[in-house]
Every structure is written in C-alpha cells, then in structure tokens.
Amino acid sequence: MSGVILDGQPLSLAEMEAVAVYGCKAQVAPEAVRRVRAGRELIERILADGQTVYGVNTGFGKLADVRVAPDKLAQLQTNLVRSHAGGVGAPLDEAEARAMLLLRANVLAKGLSGCRPELVELLVAMLNAGVHPVIPEKGSVGASGDLAPLAHLALVVIGEGEAFYAGERMSGAEAMRRAGLKPIALGAKEGLALLNGTQAMTAVGGLATVRARRVAELADVAGAMSLEALMGTPAAFDARIHKARPHAGQMASAAHLLRLLEGSEIREAHRVRDTRVQDAYCLRCMPQVHGAVRGALAHVTGVLETETGSATDNPLVFADEPGEGTVISGGNFHGAPLAYAFDYAAIVLTDLAGIMERRIDRLLNPDINEGLPAFLSPDPGLSSGFMMAQIVAAALINECQVLAHPSSTGSIPTDGGKEDHVSMGMTGALKLRTIVENAERVLAMELMCAAQGLEYRRPLKASREVERVYDAVRAVVAHLAEDRSAAEDVARLAKAIRAGALDEWRA
Q1: Would the pLDDT of 1 be above 80?
Q2: Is CB count within 10 Å lower at the N or C end of the chain?
Q3: Residue 243 and residue 332 share a domain
Q4: Averaged pLDDT, 311-328
Q5: Percent of the chain residues past pLDDT 70, beyond the cut
Q6: In the chain, how many domains are there?
C-alpha cells in the first residue's frame, strides 16, 4: 500500500493495520484541509462575537457552567491536556500508538472539531516521523471518550509528556526535536478536540480484531489438519448441508474446509473401512462454529470501520450549515457501540479457542485419538510428548472465560455525576487483546499437535493444501523426536501467526 489519504471518511481495518503495523505513510487530503479551516473560522467568529460555547470558553464536565475569560482560553486548553493525562499501567505498544495518531488525525480531518489544519498536519507528521507518544493503557472509562489516553497523546503534541523515538523512550519535547517537528501551542477548543473521542479503544480493539479475524480463518486450516490426523470425514462440509442453513460465515467456512481437504490420500485409505457414522462435534461442527465466529467478527469490523470515520468529540462544529454555521453539543464520544462489539468479539473468540482445545484433546487422548500414540509421544511413558499442550490450552481458555465477562454492563458514574453513564469500552478493547493473544497460542498448539499427528499417518499424505500448511508449520517448529520445552515453539509459531506468515491459507 503506497499511502493512506485522510479525508475524514472511514478507514478499513486493513488500512489501519498497514499504517500502524507496517509503517505505511499517511497524508491529509486537500479537501479535508479546506473543511478544517472552515470549522476553525467559525470558532474564531464565535469568540469574536462573545458567545458562550461549551469547551470553547467554558470549563469542562461538571465545570461547564464556569465562563473563562478570553485571555485565559489558551491556558484552559493546555490545563485540560495536563490535568487529564492521568493514565496508569504499561504503555500501549508502538502499533497501537500509531493507530491512535492515525485515527485522531482522520477524525479531525472531517472538519467538525473546530481545530486548525496545522494540528491535523502535526499529528500526521508525528506518525510519519515515528514519534510515538507514551500512552498508559489504563484509565479510560470510554466517555467522554478515551480522555486519559488521548491526553497523553496530546501532551507530546504540545511538547510535553513522553514519547518513543527510534526505539528509545525520552521526553516528548526531545522526541519532537529529534524528528525535526515543532510542538504546537493550543488555541481555543483544540485541547478538547484532541481529548474527546474513542480513538484509544478503536486503535486497540481494531488491531485486536484484525488479529482475531486471522485466527478465525486459520482455525479452518488447523481444523482441517486435525481432521486428517484423526482420520475424520469431510462429509459434514457438503455444500448441500450448509445451503439448508445459509449463514454466510458457515457456508464460507465449509467451502474453505472442503478446498483444504480435497485430494487426501489419508481419507481415501480409510474411506471404505471406516465404520464411524459421524465425527465428534469439534470436527463435524467446524463450519457452524467457525462460521458463526466469522459472522460476529464481520459485524465487529463494520462497527469499527464506521467509527474510524466518525466525529466523536464535543461540541461539533458545523461550518457548512446555512447562515453562519452552528456549534452543537452532543454525545458522540460515548463508546457504547464499540464496547458492545468488543464484548461480542471476546465471547466468540473464547468459544473458538474452546473448540480448538477440544481438537487438541482428541489428538492427544489415547482413548479417542484413532490409534495415534498417547499424547503424540515418540515413546509413551518414557516421554510425555504434547501432554502439556492441552493443559496449557485449558489454562489459557479459563483466563479467556473470565475475560469474556462483559465490561459494557459495568458503568460507574464519573465526573461528579455529570458523566453518569459510561461505556467501559477501553476495558473491553484491552481484554479482547488478551483473549486474541491467548487464542493465537491455542491455535499454535493445535497446529503443532496436528502436524505431529500427520507424521504418524505416513507414508500416507494428507491433501495437498494441508501438506503445504504442514510444511509451513515445520518451517517454524521442528518435529518432536524427544521431550523438550515447548514454550519457545509455541511462542515462535504464535508470532508467525500474528505476523501473517500463514495467511496464504486464509479463505
């Protein structure tokens, strides 16, 4: 991707990933600059006319009724940024900080925030130069948006706070100096334009959703390999079954599985003598479960992509309205749509990890693994083989089950009761990130076990596509010839999954 143009319209998650993860550059569209300038001119007219407008010449939240003198308006915005930068915990990673810069710039580019074009352009310049604000991950309740995380981002914009630059953590002022950028002195409304919004939860949850969709599609790949190792049947993936219950995700997953399994020697070798009527649910119902996960994540993606092009601060500046334009206070900063979506994604990813764990157990458990060695051990008894894979997977899934409890139902009133219902969307995004990370590890363990299982079916070969997946797994993790620590194997394969090394087999 050569570059992403920011014009205030929705960005795809693929575009966000390209910029945040892979370093693709961004730039502001000329038409967006015109809109932003028009919005700023309206704010200047309001100030010149002596009108009272929330956040422009008043205090904030519970202090909205306090009028601020004209000569104190710049200090008001700087104080807002400093006072709200109270986040705690580990910093967001580089990709998440980059996504926040991208998303905030794009929202401001809509021209509804009343800031100067120079502010939007500085955010993009920081992004392209690699100035990544240090943003503590905890402290947002998701209304009035992600105040604390965005305040930490804004600190660097004004030459304060901390930032990472060229892999080093330093003061925001030094990072800007090294990058050849000049911090900006905030004008009226501009601190609020930076702080009100959902860009922290959108950044964290959006990048987690990209990874979640990768896991959901690769679950078909791992499941196909497990089916081969367990000498299962692809009959349950027949298109006629799925046309009779035409959920789009289910049909896509079934078709993907059939393609992956086409031409299997293992299947042909046991087709005639196979006395089983049907496989266990974790094999037979892959299209129904994997497909439902796909459908849920498609919905979540739609919510996120709508949000990337949405004005989420307050008040909003409508300079193109008939007459002189107008400024209206509302609640677009409330993260409810995202918070609900993240909880939904957390539930389905937890269940997806659960069905993968059931396939791991079927590969390892000598009572049900179709004649494979106990725990896929090269010497059962002397060697424990992959015994710990199912145990560790169970531990990870239990953590996911706890985290899948909704955060969106946990509103706690804040700001002296002025903000009396909040979304807790950032909590949802952070726990989704952890669930996805756990699911990547469980997926890695299933792939490792399935690859080992295939080796016990030699000289028979699986389908051509499954054998190619097997080769990709073996390029990262070696055959288990004797007991060794599996921790590094799982970490390497999970990292390869996250980096897209197995994406060739995504449907």
Answers
A1: no
A2: N
A3: yes
A4: 87
A5: 97
A6: 2
pLDDT for the residue numbered 307: 98
- Same domain membership, residue 333 and residue 185: no
pTM score, two decimals? Answer: 0.95
Domain CATH for 286: 1.20.200.10
pLDDT given at position 168: 97
Max intra-chain CA distance, the chain = 88
Residue after which a domain boundary falls, among 153, 177, 197:
197
Q: Are residues 146 and 24 in the same domain?
A: yes
216, 442 Cβ separation under 8 angstroms: no
Q: Which residues have C-beta within 8 Å of that of residue 395, sequence separation ≥ 6?
A: none
* CATH number of the structural domain spanning residue 13: 1.10.275.10
Helix (H) or strand (E) holding 24, with range, is none
Domain of 126 in residue numbering reads as 4-197
pLDDT, tens only, 132-162: 999 999 999 998 889 999 999 999 999 999 9
- How far, in Å, CA of 174 to CA of 250, rounded? 52
Please check whether residues 461 and 499 belong to one and the same domain. Answer: yes
Per-residue pLDDT averaged across 5-25, rounded? Answer: 97
Coil vs helix vs strand at 145: strand
Domain identity same for 238 and 93: no
Handedness of CA 386, 390, 395, 397 (dihedral sign): positive
Helix axes 147-157, 117-129, angle to 10 degrees: 90
Distances (CA, A) of 432 to 104, 209, 219, 402: 21, 8, 18, 11
Residues 243 and 127 reside in one and the same domain? no
- Give the model's pLDDT for residue 275: 63
- Helix, strand, coil in percent for the chain, rounding step 5: 60, 5, 35
Identify the domain boundary among 197, 230, 250: 197
Active site residues: 54
pLDDT bucket at 29, cuts 50 / 70 / 90? very high
SS3 sequence of 27-91 = EECHHHHHHHHHHHHHHHHHHHHCCCCCCCCECCHHHCCCECCHHHHHHHHHHHHHHHCCCEEEE
